[in-house]
Specification:
This is Lysine exporter protein (LYSE/YGGA). Helices cover about 80% and strands about 0% of the residues. With about 200 residues, the protein is an all-alpha fold. The protein has one domain. Helix 2 runs antiparallel to helix 10 and helix 3 runs parallel beside helix 6.
């Protein structure tokens, strides 16, 4: 793949990763609830979900899903239900996400689960990749070039959210966030519920 084409691909993936949404809210919650390790685990597992959708697109299955109304509707409703469930959990969490003597830390296993499922629960990723990544794929493209596209999408997404988790878990930032855990959980919950409603409404 020519360098100029790869740079265009990297820019597209970076813009997609950096746009605020449920992924950012999920990484924020796990970093707030458990510190650096759960935040980084959530970021890396989210990248695996993104890589899965990127692979589907590169090998042509993303377009098939996008044009199969029943399959895509099932993904849409399932994704919206999961985001709504996370939103309700955030609203009910109150100050429970903050690390203190009596708080239960966010387990890395839960962070890994939420990271993958938030990526897979977002049907916009399929449409995003079908609309944009497919422009970089040709019928005669070598398998190595397809792997490079998937790896680029995965690494940029993972790299961005790992940086977010590391920044949020910094010793100068995390205590400030934890002191405002109640409000952050409320805002995150409302955001996730709003995104779930938006997905359902198309």
């Amino acid at each position: 793949m020519p360098l100029t084409l790869w740079l265009s691909l990297a820019a597209v993936c970076a813009m997609g990763a950096m746009s605020p949404g449920p992924s950012l809210a999920m990484v924020l919650r796990h970093t707030l609830g458990g510190g650096r390790v759960p935040g980084v685990v959530a970021a890396l597992s989210h990248a695996l979900g993104v890589g899965f959708y990127a692979a589907l697109t590169v090998w042509g299955l993303g377009a098939v899903i996008a044009h199969q109304p029943l399959v895509f509707t099932a993904i849409t409703w399932g994704g919206a239900a999961y985001l709504a469930w996370l939103g309700v959990k955030a609203l009910c969490a109150g100050r429970g996400g903050a690390l203190n003597a009596g708080a239960v830390a966010s387990p890395p296993l839960h962070a890994a689960r939420d990271g993958v499922l938030v990526a897979l629960a977002n049907p916009k990723l399929i449409l995003f990749f079908v609309a944009l990544l497919s422009q970089f794929v040709s019928a005669d493209m070598a398998a190595s070039a397809k792997v490079a596209i998937v790896a680029t999408a995965t690494l940029i997404d993972g790299g961005w959210y790992v940086l977010v988790a590391l920044a949020l878990s910094h010793s100068a930032v995390l205590p400030w966030l934890q002191a405002r855990a109640h409000w952050i959980n409320r805002i995150t919950g409302v955001l996730l519920l709003g995104l779930a409603l938006r997905i359902v409404m198309g």
